[in-house]
């Protein structure tokens, strides 16, 4: 959330929209999580808020990151990733695939390939219009997503071919 606040003063609604258009491809805060977190950031001195009076709508809160919030963001981002286990329900279901209907396994692989293809097209469209020099780090994040989508497509095609070859998917 602090990272999103570096883009300037925003309401919770604006932050949800910004998340969807930027980091939403790999991290999306729940609406309830976002609205609960913003006052906490203010209480901890990591963000400031101000009320904007509106005549035809309810008043809204706008949030801005503080210098302490920028320091906390940097400290958080500089923490090592660690070796947390990647929870991957798709891989877990594949691992136990022999206990499932082969057509359901095949359908899930095909659906994952299709979703990755759609996602890849979205990312490639964004890539065409992105100023890579001005937005180097968001661009690197986008490239990670592109390569991840390509890997999922390659894997899916290979898995489907193996299912056909070994007669396990029909």
Q: How many structural domains are formed by the residues?
A: 2
What best-fitting shape do the alpha-carbon axes yield? Answer: elongated
Radius of gyration, in Å, reads 21 Å
Q: How much β-strand is present in the residues?
A: 5-15%
**Strand order of the main beta sheet, please?**
1-2
**Secondary structural class:** mainly alpha
SSE order = HHHEEHHHH
**Biggest sheet: strands, sense, closure?**
2 strands, antiparallel
Can you tell me the residue ranges where pLDDT is under 50 for at least 5 consecutive residues? none
Q: What is the residue-mean pLDDT, rounded to a whole number?
A: 91
Helical residue percent? 55-70%
* Number of continuous helical runs: 7
Number of DSSP E strands: 2
Distance between the termini: 46 Å
SSE topology sketch:
Blueprint: H1 2-5, H2 12-21, H3 31-43, E1 47-52, E2 60-65, H4 67-77, H5 89-95, H6 102-129, H7 136-166
Antiparallel strand pairs: 1-2
Helix pairs in contact: 6-7
How does this structure look, described?
This protein is mainly alpha-helical. It has two domains: 2-77, Orthogonal Bundle (Arc Repressor Mutant, subunit A), CATH 1.10.10; 89-166. The protein contains seven helices and two strands. The protein has a two-stranded antiparallel sheet with strand order 1-2. Helix 6 (102-129) runs antiparallel to helix 7 (136-166). The longest helix is centred in the C-terminal third of the chain and has 31 residues, at 136-166.
């Amino acid at each position: 959330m602090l990272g999103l606040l570096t883009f300037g003063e925003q309401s919770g609604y604006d932050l949800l929209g910004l998340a969807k258009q930027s980091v939403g491809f790999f991290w999306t805060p729940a609406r309830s999580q976002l609205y609960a977190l913003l006052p906490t950031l203010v209480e901890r001195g990591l963000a400031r808020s101000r009320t904007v009076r509106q005549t035809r709508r309810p008043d809204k809160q706008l949030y801005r990151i503080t210098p302490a919030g920028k320091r906390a963001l940097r400290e958080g981002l500089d923490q090592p990733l660690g070796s947390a286990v990647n929870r991957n329900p798709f891989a877990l279901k594949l691992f136990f695939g022999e206990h499932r209907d082969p057509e359901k396994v095949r359908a899930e692989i095909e659906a994952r390939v299709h979703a990755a293809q759609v996602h890849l097209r979205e990312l490639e469209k964004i890539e065409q219009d992105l100023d890579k020099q001005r937005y180097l780090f968001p661009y690197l994040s986008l490239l990670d997503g592109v390569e991840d989508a390509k890997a999922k497509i390659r894997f899916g095609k290979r898995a489907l071919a193996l299912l056909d070859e070994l007669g396990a998917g029909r």
